[in-house]
């Protein structure tokens, strides 16, 4: 499960980075390099180069986010299934709707929706990044937040 959480967090952070790049655009430099005279044509070419490089950067971040989430999702699936098999051996039940199990399922559903929307709906860019960013917060709730409840079989982090 740790490998899946780590890869999904990295992929989700890349989604957050994509949104940050959209929210905070690259600023155009007002100063010109010393010794070089830039006419209006060269300034437009420079701005279009900056715009193209930003677009290329956004596409790269989006692609890497998709690939890393696609890598972590099977690990999460394997972790949930193997945990259910182990729970059946230990407690006689595959699924007991423990808060940790429930949030692991919610995490799985969020990333399943993300991958489904990318593959079948063709979502790219901002829509997919928003969904991936939601996954970031869901993972943290599953990994840390559930331990603060102090209830269930997975409350090993509870200190009160």
Automatic annotation (TrEMBL):
Residue stretches making up the Cytochrome c assembly protein domain: 1-154
Entries under InterPro entries matching the protein: Cyt_c_assembly (IPR002541), Cyt_c_biogenesis_CcsA (IPR017562), Cyt_c_biogenesis_CcsA/CcmC (IPR045062)
Pfam families: Cytochrom_C_asm (PF01578)
Compartment annotation: Membrane
Membrane topology value: Multi-pass membrane protein
Cellular component, GO, one term: plasma membrane
Keywords from the UniProt entry: Cytochrome c-type biogenesis, Membrane, Plastid, Transmembrane, Transmembrane helix
Source species: Synura petersenii
Gene Ontology biological-process entries: cytochrome complex assembly
GO molecular function: heme binding
Official protein name in the record: Cytochrome c biogenesis protein
Transmembrane segments: 6-26, 64-87, 102-117, 129-150
Signal sequence annotation: none
